[in-house]
């Protein structure tokens, strides 16, 4: 299983973390610090797998972001590389040519997308189209609710004026 | 506008934080925002709750504490609208983890949401449950999830399946409930559901054997069919990755097949064909294809495959190994480790490539390759492989050296056929990577050397040579120091020269030079210095002309700040100065530890306590540091362990070493039953007694002695007298009165408490000045009678005590009667040290046990 997902920038800033195994807040900061040091120090030609604390961490660099996933020692690393790429492609499709800034200002949307791809540390959906469809449906629900709220308050505002 | 909202939208806050140039600025902004959020929370603000939580999540990602927002998440989840629930659940998953108790409060909301009419809300609930539920929540909500597994909506189905995975991981007992729904999931067409379903089945197999039997019987056929369909399917745009339809599903199916085929030849046979098809058909120019091939090979290795299939798998591995992509090579090395168990011949063919990988620039590949090489070592290739590894050790990175040395040591130990080769390799390893060599590796080396008398001269000379060049390697220094100490005369007299050796002359003072260098060098640690001190002592006996010089060297350390060194220096100095007669027997050659027994014990006693573990090494002197100082640990424990480890000796070492100790130090001591000296007793009295003023030390003099017999040092405290004497050099010692002829000694009140009084009166025979007869009288000062009265006494090591039987063991109350007892006390240090005694009285009063103890140091001088 995937124990956690980590997105860190080249400068070591955390852009997204998702934990599927119990780690306390203190442990989380420690893990992030350790892994940032380990992964950011690796050269470009080296393989994408790092052994850490008995687990394997698979990472891939996309522009200025490192996408890292920590898996058990007996999982298929190449598949995880594919899952990372799957995630990135969906993000790309959603944000339209995604860049790091998109992920910073819309981190909650990135999380929603991740939740449609992984649950309990396992892959949920292999079709990018389906994921996009589900996210779009939920977004429209939110839009609709917002519109409703603003129209009601408009009405009230008009009434109380 | 709510006056308590911070006013800023999420976007603006993020912009503000990113604009901060320093950490202090950022902290200020965050603090302001948190304050606003906190006041909004306390005002129970509804409108901007979701914005506040979003802000809080961002702040949390920056690393600041955000626990005050946890309850807000709960309120959002309990709200009725979809947007609130969405952000509430996200906040829940981000700000909380399963160990927090707050999580339990969500159970009710979750239950309601799982039954909601809006499918997306059900999805949210399942997602949250699947990501962070605890065991209790899992138990509570499992029935809901089971029900949801059977809905028609594929979105809910797949989420429910993954949620069930978490449930059975947390509560494995519930696995049976999910078994039949899981099997029915495999009949679906939707890929998402299939992936989740296959994963659920895999986890069920991991958790319960019944599940795997059930699935094996009912689902194997279906699985093969699904795999065949997607493998043969034409281009499907929705699921296509690099020309392969849904590689994820391929991989999951292969994994489940592996679990079902493991150990079961029927299933293995059934899936043979599809495995062959996938293995040969899949293209391997893209990562997706390689991932599938990887999984396929793992499956082939994991089941009872035909030999043809195995050959296919090994071929794929061979191709991977020569691939230029680092990832593929890493994966190949990984797979080869499993392949070794299956077909090690085939893997041996790739040995050279693997050795190359040990030297690769990528740390992960190096590590894997080293592990693989270790698995490939057998008797035939051990020598060349070791040579290659040692050559590489010279140039490898520091962080890799640790692993490398450990592995080389293991290989050399396991596969050495001749002692000389083993010793040679170990010397090389010590010279190149001695700092990384673990203690038991060089201990084993010492055992081997001591068991090979014809190689001892060679060893000590090689070590001497190696020391000249690589003296910064700690383990090398320690082994050298020990060997020079033990076999110094072989070094100097060129004993046992082998033909391969170059001639070398080492004088006695050269040898002492080496030891002195180790001792005085700044970089030596305490253990090395302690070993050097002992080695110097040995040399002072083996090379008498150097004795003066050695004494000077040792004297320097009498004032050392390190307690261990100071103690050793003082004691060895005194041995050299005052005890020449016993010195040579003290430092005789160590008895050889039986090698096979040692190796056997070493492998079996993995968790032996430190004392026992170290006790087994002949170089125990180096490890005496580990003994706690001044701890009143009953010496029985390490002695028992000693009994365990020493293969031959079954007699109580304590008494024998006791005798040796006293024989050597010129004291005869009998173990009288009522004396508290018995080492196996190890009572507090004894400890306290012997610590007269100074803390109990583990006297290395005793260690030197006991090491002479190859026993471990006992933690039995040994008189600190020698030490005290040196420290008090020049001070008049107690009781060194000019001997009077017929001394008359006044009686003393040895002990007095509110309930008991003891009087001692003394007689002495003039021709035996060191023997005293003490007549003890016990008086009961209380108003209750005492029964079962027992008197015990303990004396320092230089004193011998003999107790005659008491007159009775009933002591009437209020001094109406007395008990008398005669003690014979022999002071071997008569005239130099005064008597001292610790006493303990145990008796019953009104059927209750009572005890009193005290120390007697008011003996008249001259006893």
From TrEMBL, chain A:
<dbReference type="GO" id="GO:0016482">
    <property type="term" value="P:cytosolic transport"/>
</dbReference>
<dbReference type="Pfam" id="PF01217">
    <property type="entry name" value="Clat_adaptor_s"/>
</dbReference>
<dbReference type="InterPro" id="IPR016635">
    <property type="entry name" value="AP_complex_ssu"/>
</dbReference>
<keyword id="KW-0333">Golgi apparatus</keyword>
<dbReference type="GO" id="GO:0035615">
    <property type="term" value="F:clathrin adaptor activity"/>
</dbReference>
<comment type="function">
    <text>Subunit of clathrin-associated adaptor protein complex 1 that plays a role in protein sorting at the trans-Golgi network and early endosomes (TGN/EE). The AP complexes mediate the recruitment of clathrin to membranes and the recognition of sorting signals within the cytosolic tails of transmembrane cargo molecules.</text>
</comment>
<dbReference type="InterPro" id="IPR044733">
    <property type="entry name" value="AP1_sigma"/>
</dbReference>
<dbReference type="GO" id="GO:0016192">
    <property type="term" value="P:vesicle-mediated transport"/>
</dbReference>
<keyword id="KW-0813">Transport</keyword>
<dbReference type="GO" id="GO:0006886">
    <property type="term" value="P:intracellular protein transport"/>
</dbReference>
<dbReference type="InterPro" id="IPR022775">
    <property type="entry name" value="AP_mu_sigma_su"/>
</dbReference>
<keyword id="KW-0472">Membrane</keyword>
<keyword id="KW-0653">Protein transport</keyword>
<dbReference type="GO" id="GO:0005829">
    <property type="term" value="C:cytosol"/>
</dbReference>
<comment type="similarity">
    <text>Belongs to the adaptor complexes small subunit family.</text>
</comment>
<keyword id="KW-0968">Cytoplasmic vesicle</keyword>
<feature type="domain" description="AP complex mu/sigma subunit">
    <location>
        <begin position="1"/>
        <end position="140"/>
    </location>
</feature>
<dbReference type="InterPro" id="IPR000804">
    <property type="entry name" value="Clathrin_sm-chain_CS"/>
</dbReference>
<comment type="subunit">
    <text>Adaptor protein complex 1 (AP-1) is a heterotetramer composed of two large adaptins (gamma-type subunit and beta-type subunit), a medium adaptin (mu-type subunit) and a small adaptin (sigma-type subunit).</text>
</comment>
<protein>
    <recommendedName>
        <fullName>AP complex subunit sigma</fullName>
    </recommendedName>
</protein>
<dbReference type="InterPro" id="IPR011012">
    <property type="entry name" value="Longin-like_dom_sf"/>
</dbReference>
<dbReference type="GO" id="GO:0030121">
    <property type="term" value="C:AP-1 adaptor complex"/>
</dbReference>
UniProtKB/TrEMBL annotation, chain B:
<dbReference type="Pfam" id="PF02883">
    <property type="entry name" value="Alpha_adaptinC2"/>
</dbReference>
<dbReference type="GO" id="GO:0035615">
    <property type="term" value="F:clathrin adaptor activity"/>
</dbReference>
<keyword id="KW-0968">Cytoplasmic vesicle</keyword>
<keyword id="KW-0472">Membrane</keyword>
<protein>
    <recommendedName>
        <fullName>AP-1 complex subunit gamma</fullName>
    </recommendedName>
</protein>
<dbReference type="GO" id="GO:0006886">
    <property type="term" value="P:intracellular protein transport"/>
</dbReference>
<dbReference type="InterPro" id="IPR013041">
    <property type="entry name" value="Clathrin_app_Ig-like_sf"/>
</dbReference>
<dbReference type="InterPro" id="IPR002553">
    <property type="entry name" value="Clathrin/coatomer_adapt-like_N"/>
</dbReference>
<keyword id="KW-0333">Golgi apparatus</keyword>
<comment type="similarity">
    <text>Belongs to the adaptor complexes large subunit family.</text>
</comment>
<dbReference type="InterPro" id="IPR011989">
    <property type="entry name" value="ARM-like"/>
</dbReference>
<dbReference type="InterPro" id="IPR050840">
    <property type="entry name" value="Adaptor_Complx_Large_Subunit"/>
</dbReference>
<dbReference type="Pfam" id="PF01602">
    <property type="entry name" value="Adaptin_N"/>
</dbReference>
<comment type="function">
    <text>Subunit of clathrin-associated adaptor protein complex 1 that plays a role in protein sorting at the trans-Golgi network and early endosomes (TGN/EE). The AP complexes mediate both the recruitment of clathrin to membranes and the recognition of sorting signals within the cytosolic tails of transmembrane cargo molecules.</text>
</comment>
<dbReference type="InterPro" id="IPR008153">
    <property type="entry name" value="GAE_dom"/>
</dbReference>
<dbReference type="GO" id="GO:0006896">
    <property type="term" value="P:Golgi to vacuole transport"/>
</dbReference>
<keyword id="KW-0653">Protein transport</keyword>
<dbReference type="InterPro" id="IPR016024">
    <property type="entry name" value="ARM-type_fold"/>
</dbReference>
<dbReference type="InterPro" id="IPR017107">
    <property type="entry name" value="AP1_complex_gsu"/>
</dbReference>
<dbReference type="InterPro" id="IPR008152">
    <property type="entry name" value="Clathrin_a/b/g-adaptin_app_Ig"/>
</dbReference>
<keyword id="KW-0813">Transport</keyword>
<dbReference type="GO" id="GO:0030121">
    <property type="term" value="C:AP-1 adaptor complex"/>
</dbReference>
């Amino acid at each position: 299983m995937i124990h956690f997902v980590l997105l860190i920038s080249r400068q070591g800033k955390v852009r997204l973390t998702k934990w599927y195994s119990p780690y306390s807040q203190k442990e989380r900061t420690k893990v992030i610090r350790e892994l940032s040091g380990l992964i950011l120090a690796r050269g470009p030609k080296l393989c994408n797998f790092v052994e850490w604390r008995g687990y394997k961490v698979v990472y891939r660099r996309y522009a200025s972001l490192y996408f890292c996933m920590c898996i058990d020692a007996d999982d298929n690393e190449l598949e995880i590389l594919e899952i990372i790429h799957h995630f990135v492609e969906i993000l790309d499709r959603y944000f339209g040519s995604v860049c790091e800034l998109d992920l910073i200002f819309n981190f909650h949307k990135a999380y929603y997308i991740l939740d449609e791809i992984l649950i309990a540390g396992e892959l949920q959906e292999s079709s990018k189209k389906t994921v996009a469809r589900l996210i779009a449906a939920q977004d429209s629900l939110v839009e609709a609710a917002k519109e409703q709220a603003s129209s009601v308050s408009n009405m009230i505002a008009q009434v109380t004026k | 506008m709510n006056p308590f909202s911070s006013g800023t939208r999420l976007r603006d806050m993020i912009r503000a934080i990113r604009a901060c140039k320093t950490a202090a600025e950022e902290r200020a902004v965050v603090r302001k925002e948190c304050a606003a959020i906190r006041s909004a929370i306390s005002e129970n603000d509804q409108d901007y709750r979701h914005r506040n939580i979003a802000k809080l999540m961002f702040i949390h990602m920056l690393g600041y504490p955000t626990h005050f927002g946890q309850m807000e998440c709960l309120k959002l989840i309990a709200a009725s609208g979809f947007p609130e629930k969405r952000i509430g659940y996200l906040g829940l998953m981000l700000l909380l983890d399963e160990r927090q108790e707050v999580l339990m409060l969500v159970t009710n909301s979750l239950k309601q949401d799982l039954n909601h009419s809006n499918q997306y809300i059900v999805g949210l609930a399942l997602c949250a449950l699947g990501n962070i539920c605890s065991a209790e929540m899992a138990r509570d909500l499992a029935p809901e999830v089971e029900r949801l597994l059977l809905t028609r909506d594929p979105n809910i189905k797949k989420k429910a399946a993954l949620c069930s995975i978490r449930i059975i991981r947390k509560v494995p007992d519930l696995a049976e409930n999910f078994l039949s729904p899981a099997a029915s999931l495999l009949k679906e067409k939707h890929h998402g559901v299939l992936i989740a379903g296959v994963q659920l089945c895999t986890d069920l197999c991991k958790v319960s054997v019944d599940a795997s039997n059930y699935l094996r019987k009912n689902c194997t056929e279906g699985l093969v069919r699904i795999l065949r369909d997607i493998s043969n399917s034409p281009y499907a745009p929705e699921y296509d990755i690099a020309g392969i339809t849904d590689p994820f599903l391929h991989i999951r199916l292969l994994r489940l097949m592996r679990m079902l085929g493991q150990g079961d030849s029927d299933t293995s046979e059934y899936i043979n064909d599809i495995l062959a098809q996938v293995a040969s058909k899949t293209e391997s120019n893209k990562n997706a294809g390689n991932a599938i091939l990887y999984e396929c090979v793992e499956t082939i290795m994991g089941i009872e495959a035909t030999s043809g299939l195995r050959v296919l798998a090994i071929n794929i591995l061979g191709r991977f190994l020569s691939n230029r992509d680092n990832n593929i090579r890493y994966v190949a090395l990984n797979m080869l480790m499993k392949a070794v168990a299956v077909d090690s011949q085939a893997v041996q063919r790739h040995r050279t490539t693997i050795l190359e990988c040990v030297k690769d620039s990528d740390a992960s590949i190096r590590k894997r390759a080293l592990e693989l090489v270790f698995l490939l070592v057998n008797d035939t290739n051990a020598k060349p492989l070791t040579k290659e590894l040692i050559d590489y050790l010279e140039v490898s990175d520091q962080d890799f050296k640790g692993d490398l040395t450990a592995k080389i040591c293991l290989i050399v130990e396991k596969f050495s056929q001749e002692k000389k080769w083993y010793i040679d390799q170990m010397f090389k390893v010590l010279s190149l990577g001695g700092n990384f060599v673990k203690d038991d590796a060089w201990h084993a080396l010492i055992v081997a050397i001591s068991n090979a008398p014809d190689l001892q001269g060679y060893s000590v000379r090689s070590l001497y040579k190696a020391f000249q060049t690589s003296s910064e390697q700690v383990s090398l220094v320690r082994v050298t120091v020990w060997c020079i100490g033990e076999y110094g005369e072989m070094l100097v007299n060129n004993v046992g020269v082998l033909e391969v050796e170059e001639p070398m002359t080492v004088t006695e003072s050269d040898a002492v030079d080496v030891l002195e260098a180790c001792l005085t060098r700044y970089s030596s640690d305490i253990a090395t210095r302690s070993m050097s001190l002992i080695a110097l002592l040995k040399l002072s006996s083996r090379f008498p002309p150097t004795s003066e010089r050695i004494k000077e060297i040792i004297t320097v350390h009498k004032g050392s700040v390190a307690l261990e060194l100071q103690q050793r220096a003082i004691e060895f100095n005194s041995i050299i100065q005052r005890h020449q007669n016993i010195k040579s027997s003290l430092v005789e050659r160590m008895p050889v530890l039986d090698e096979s027994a040692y190796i056997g014990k070493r492998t079996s006693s993995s968790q032996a306590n430190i004392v026992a573990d170290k006790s087994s090494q002949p170089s125990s002197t180096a490890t005496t540091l580990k003994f706690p100082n001044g701890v009143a640990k009953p010496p029985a424990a390490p002695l028992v362990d000693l009994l365990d480890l020493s293969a031959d000796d079954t007699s109580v070492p304590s008494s024998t070493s006791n005798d040796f100790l006293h024989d050597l130090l010129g004291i005869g001591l009998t173990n009288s039953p009522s004396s508290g000296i018995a080492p196996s007793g190890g009572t507090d009295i004894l400890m306290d007694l012997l610590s007269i003023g100074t803390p109990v030390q583990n006297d290395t003099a005793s260690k030197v002695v006991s090491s002479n017999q190859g026993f471990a040092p006992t933690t039995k405290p040994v008189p600190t007298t020698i030490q005290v004497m040196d420290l008090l050099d020049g001070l008049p010692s107690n009781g060194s009165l000019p001997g009077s002829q017929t001394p008359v000694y006044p009686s003393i009140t040895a002990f007095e408490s509110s309930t008991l009084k003891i009087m001692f009166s003394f007689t002495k025979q003039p021709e035996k000045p060191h023997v005293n007869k003490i007549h003890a009288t016990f008086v009961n000062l209380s108003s209750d009678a005492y029964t079962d009265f027992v008197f015990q006494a303990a004396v320092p090591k230089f004193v011998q005590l003999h107790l005659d039987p008491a007159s009775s063991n009933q002591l009437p109350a209020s001094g109406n009667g007395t008990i008398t007892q005669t003690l014979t006390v022999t002071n071997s240090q008569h005239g130099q040290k005064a008597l001292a005694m610790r006493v303990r009285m145990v008796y019953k009063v009104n059927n209750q046990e009572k005890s009193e103890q005290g120390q007697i140091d008011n003996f008249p001088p001259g006893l």
